[in-house]
């Protein structure tokens, strides 16, 4: 699948549609071909105060991650009742196939949600297609008056009123007096994991920390077939070179900070060396080895992995796969003396995954 000449440069999202209520952005597979090659979709929703994203379902399973603000999401799983859930910065939500969602922001701060997901069953590889229930491009307006009348047992006048009052699409701005359902904190259980409050899976002093989304802390992850994690790398710290050892793709969005990235692929070729910035998305092809070094201000990123319980192999640090090999094998493989091999093996015996800056 991965071609040596495929474009891997990190990209920012482009505006797709929007208005006074907010804007919907998406990453284009023509700018980031790995989306199409890897069957990955990526988009972002930004809602202004009183912005309302109309009820819709998608052709893809996704992970939603709240990048900024506080708001409300309504979720209807197939054949289930609506759950109205309060959401805040750091929240991750698994959205399986067939789920209907709406989003609302009544706060002054813009509500921004990132969506990353699997498009292997989508209409277009590398793109999400959303099906709105209402609005000028909604499912409801597509049926004839006769079909709507029969399905909902409505008279023609009522049907015409319902259809005729939907001139807007996608994202709308509600009046301040509009009454929306109140979210219930208890609805978060089993549906939402706040990555900024969850226990760390790895925590290295002055190095970094990570929270992993998996089937244990967010059971719905099993239904979407994806894993995810939030990584915070401290200032000038390094993330160990590593790769996904179960054929998964890593799709990474830079949340905060900047840093340097190197990516090594087939035939030991460095296929990417760049500085990554907030708002950029990049994809690590299967089995390619990636490493990052944060700038002095540190760096934070959110990733999905195309396996619900991903497995990674790290090539440096105390869990290094290289150090698992016997000394004789390493000495022969590197074609070095026993002294050099021993020096190589003796370093990084305490740090795992994240390496603090040198003192």
Task: Walk me through this protein's architecture.
This protein is mainly beta. The protein folds into 2 domains: 14-188, Jelly Rolls (Sandwich); 193-355, Jelly Rolls. It has 8 helices and 23 strands. A hairpin with a 2-residue loop joins strand 1 and strand 2. The mean pLDDT is 92.
Concise summary:
Helix content is 14%, strand content 41%. It is mainly beta. It has 2 domains: 14-188, Jelly Rolls; 193-355, Jelly Rolls (Sandwich).
Question: Which descriptors would you attach to this protein?
Answer:
single chain, 359 residues, mainly beta, Jelly Rolls, ten-stranded antiparallel beta sheet, 23 strands, 14% helix
Let me know the number of strands.
23
CATH class type of the largest domain: Mainly Beta
Helix content: 10-25%
CATH architecture of the largest domain: Sandwich
What is the straight-line distance between the termini? 42 Å
CATH superfamily of the largest domain: Jelly Rolls
Helix-and-strand structural type: mainly beta
Rg (CA only):
23 Å
- Average pLDDT confidence is 92
How would you describe the shape? elongated
What fold name goes in the CATH topology slot of the largest domain?
Jelly Rolls
For the sheet with most strands, the description reads: 10 strands, antiparallel
Q: Which blocks of ≥5 consecutive residues have pLDDT under 50?
A: none
Which percent range describes the beta-strand content?
Answer: 35-45%
Number of domains: 2
Count up the helices. Answer: 8
Describe the protein's topology.
Elements: E1 14-19, E2 22-26, H1 34-38, E3 40-47, E4 51-58, E5 61-68, E6 70-76, E7 83-88, E8 91-95, E9 100-105, E10 111-118, E11 130-132, H2 139-142, H3 145-152, H4 156-164, E12 171-173, E13 192-194, E14 202-204, E15 208-213, H5 221-224, E16 227-233, E17 238-244, E18 250-264, E19 270-276, E20 281-284, E21 289-305, E22 312-314, H6 321-324, H7 327-334, H8 338-346, E23 354-355
Antiparallel strand pairs: 1-2, 2-3, 3-10, 4-9, 4-11, 4-12, 5-8, 5-10, 6-7, 6-9, 8-13, 14-15, 15-16, 16-21, 17-21, 17-22, 17-23, 18-19, 18-20, 18-21
Helix pairs in contact: 7-8
């Amino acid at each position: 699948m991965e071609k040596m000449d495929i474009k891997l440069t990190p990209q920012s999202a482009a505006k797709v549609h929007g208005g006074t209520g907010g804007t919907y952005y998406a990453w284009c597979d023509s700018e980031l071909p790995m989306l199409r090659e890897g069957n990955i979709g990526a988009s972002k929703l930004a809602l202004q105060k009183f912005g309302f994203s109309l009820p819709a379902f998608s052709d893809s399973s996704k992970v939603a991650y709240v990048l900024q603000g506080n708001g409300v999401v309504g979720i209807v799983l197939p054949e289930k009742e609506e759950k109205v859930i309060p959401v805040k910065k750091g929240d991750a939500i698994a959205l399986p196939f067939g789920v209907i969602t709406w989003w609302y922001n009544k706060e002054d701060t813009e509500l921004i949600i990132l969506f990353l997901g699997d498009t292997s069953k989508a209409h277009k590889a590398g793109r999400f297609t959303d099906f709105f229930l209402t609005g000028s491009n909604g499912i409801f307006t597509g049926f004839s008056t006769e079909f709507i009348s029969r399905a909902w047992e409505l008279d023609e006048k009522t049907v015409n009123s319902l259809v005729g009052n939907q001139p807007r699409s996608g994202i709308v701005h509600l009046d301040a007096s509009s009454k929306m359902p109140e979210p219930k904190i208890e609805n978060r259980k089993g549906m939402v994991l706040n990555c900024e409050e969850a226990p760390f899976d790895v925590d290295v002093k002055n190095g970094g920390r990570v929270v992993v989304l998996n089937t244990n802390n967010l059971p719905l992850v099993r239904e979407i077939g994806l894993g995810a994690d939030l990584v915070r790398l401290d200032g000038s710290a390094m993330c160990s070179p590593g790769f996904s050892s179960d054929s998964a793709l890593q799709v990474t969005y830079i949340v905060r900070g900047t840093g340097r990235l190197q990516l090594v692929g087939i035939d030991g070729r460095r296929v990417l060396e760049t500085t990554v910035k907030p708002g950029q998305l990049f994809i690590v092809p299967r089995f390619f080895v990636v490493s990052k070094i944060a700038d002095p201000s540190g760096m934070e990123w959110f990733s999905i992995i195309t396996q619900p319980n991903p497995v990674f192999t790290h090539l440096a640090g105390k869990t290094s796969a290289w150090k698992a090999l016997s000394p004789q094998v390493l000495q022969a493989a590197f074609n070095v003396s026993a002294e050099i091999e021993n020096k190589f093996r003796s370093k990084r015996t305490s740090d795992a995954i994240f390496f603090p800056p040198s003192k």
